[in-house]
Amino acid sequence: MKRIAILQSNYIPWKGYFDIINSVDEFVIYDDAQYTRRDWRNRNIIKTKHGLKWLTIPVLVKGLYNQKISETRINQNFWAERHWKTLKQNYSTAPYFLEFQNLFEGAYIKASNMEKLTEVNMLFIRLINSFLGIETKITSSTDYNLRGNKTEKIISVCKQAEALHYFSGHAAKSYIDEHLFHEADIKLTWVDYNNYPEYNQINPPFDHKVSIVDLIFNEGKNAKKFMKSFK
């Protein structure tokens, strides 16, 4: 039974995002969706000794209220250097920072030359997938013919991808019609984000809802031990 998930792209997402990717056979990046401000598309959180800090990619939004994520352009060319400097300042003492410093620094150098947000997000998603050994097929919503309301679009993609098992985060319960999945004979699984084990975070108090780079720099290749889909 082929398993599939559909999510909008995020910037350096948290560990739960990658648990969903690792739980399915195909992961569809839904960048046909409208770009939403103050969301996870262009920003994420890291830990610092002064508390949580947002890393935000500046994007062009003025007068572009209906633009898709795939159409959203970056507004500066020095953001990547600034983000990498911030990561280096806050994680240089983490146990595995030096081991993987070049990997991430190289990615930020590549990202600095990219014009679209979705390109940057995909760069880091693929980089982290490779780091974790995730081999899930990654596709784009543009590869499919989307039609109907939100639930109907998901079911349409499932059918076109010949998938009979759909994985979703609980936030989608606000709009997913489970009855339609039953009618389509597609199994719906809600991913449980509760009860993740804690790891050694250099900047206490512990917080689960931060970018996965925090887990990588603190635990290195042991990161998978603190994720659910690898057990």
Explain what you see.
This protein has helices at residues 15-23, 79-91, 97-111, 117-132, 150-160, 178-183, 212-219, and strands at residues 3-7, 26-29, 43-48, 51-56, 137-140, 165-168, 187-190. It has 231 residues and is of the alpha/beta class. The protein has one domain (3-226). Strands 5-2-1-6-7 form a 5-stranded parallel β-sheet. The radius of gyration is 18 Å and the shape is globular. The two termini are 20 Å apart. The model has no long low-confidence stretch (mean pLDDT 96).
Q: How are helices and strands ordered from N to C?
A: EHEEEHHHEHEHEH
Number of strands: 7
Q: Can you summarize the main beta sheet?
A: 5 strands, parallel
Distance between the termini: 20 Å
Beta-strand fraction estimate: 5-15%
Q: By helix and strand content, what is the structural category?
A: alpha/beta
How many distinct helices? 7
Could you give a quick summary of the protein structure above?
The chain has helices at residues 15-23, 79-91, 97-111, 117-132, 150-160, 178-183, 212-219, and strands spanning 3-7, 26-29, 43-48, 51-56, 137-140, 165-168, 187-190. By secondary structure, the chain is of the alpha/beta class.
List the keywords.
single chain, 231 residues, alpha/beta, five-stranded parallel sheet, two-stranded antiparallel ribbon, 7 helices, 7 strands
